[in-house]
Amino acid sequence: MSTQTLLLPPLSRLSGVSALPRLLGRGDREPAQVPGLLAALAEVFAVPGSGLPVAALLREAQTHDAGENVWLCADPAWVQAELAGARLLACGALGLARDEAEELARPLRPLLGDSGMLLEISTPDRWQLRLPVGSPLPSFAAPETVLGQHL
Questions:
Q1: Whether 147 contacts 77, CB under 8 Å
Q2: Average pLDDT, the chain
């Protein structure tokens, strides 16, 4: 018997998927070992070493051109300035239209390009930076773990 693993968003977002009740009825629900998309992906893919190449996986899934490039997630975020610093209020799911995303990216591209980075927009909510070959990947906390916190 074959096994399939489904990583699903909240079921309320899947009401239009007609085959889903049949698939879910034939399976077993496994509790998440750790919360969050990135942790779930790392768990399913069991990537050893330095961690899951999330940006490259997302880029490949969305545009099929990740190749051997070094990618960094650069999703648009809502950061609110406060007296004591800044707070991350949202990341990725801002509901931007394609033209709005391009407008936001336009002034960033030359600044990043001066450092050899290329800002790419896969979807209005999913952006990536293509880093120069050989660039080390910095370590960041997953946005979902720092939402609402001071940066």
A1: no
A2: 84
